[in-house]
Amino acid sequence: MNDPAEAWVRRAQEDLAVARHASQSGWHATACFHAQQSAEKWLKALLVQSGLRPPRTHDLGVLADTLAAFVAVDAIREAALVLTEYAVDARYPGTDVDADEATQAVAYAECVQRWAETTGL
After folding, report:
1. What is the secondary structure of 62-78 as a DSSP string?
2. What total number of domains does the chain contain?
3. CA 121, CA 110: separation in Å to the nearest integer?
4. Cα–Cα dist 79/1, whole Å
5. Which of 34, 45, 96, 97 matches a 20 to 30 Å C-alpha distance to 28?
């Protein structure tokens, strides 16, 4: 792995740790946001590893579509679609997220991490 990709991975790991802690602490919207951020950074790490500059987007579907030229992304398609919804809305008041939703978001982020690690990171 190259150094820039490693930097993305470290940040992805940090976001997943924050998402887990937030979920356990009852901060459900924060857990969902950081779960999305973790998945986003894993996908961007793979793009960097593939020699591409990651696009400035929070849409995990767009990132997955870009990666599809290099690796099969079907295993994370659902996670990408669900987590993308938390990129913006979860940061602001008025977003109601319950414990089950936060738990699922963290599970999706963990799924993306496992998938990314099996692709060569």
Report:
1. HHHHHHTTTS--GGGHH
2. 1
3. 14
4. 24
5. 45
Which residues in the chain come in under a pLDDT of 70? Answer: 1-2, 121
pTM, entire model: 0.95
Identify the domain containing residue 78 by its residue range.
3-118
**Helix and strand numbers, DSSP H then E, in the chain:** 5, 0
What pLDDT was estimated at residue 28?
A: 97
What letter would DSSP give residue 92?
S
What local confidence, expressed as pLDDT, does residue 39 receive? Answer: 98
pLDDT, residue 118, reads: 94
What Cα–Cα distance (Å) separates residue 75 from each residue in 2, 47, 80, 82, 96?
24, 17, 10, 13, 27
Angle, CA 53 vertex, CA 49 and CA 56 arms, to 5°: 125
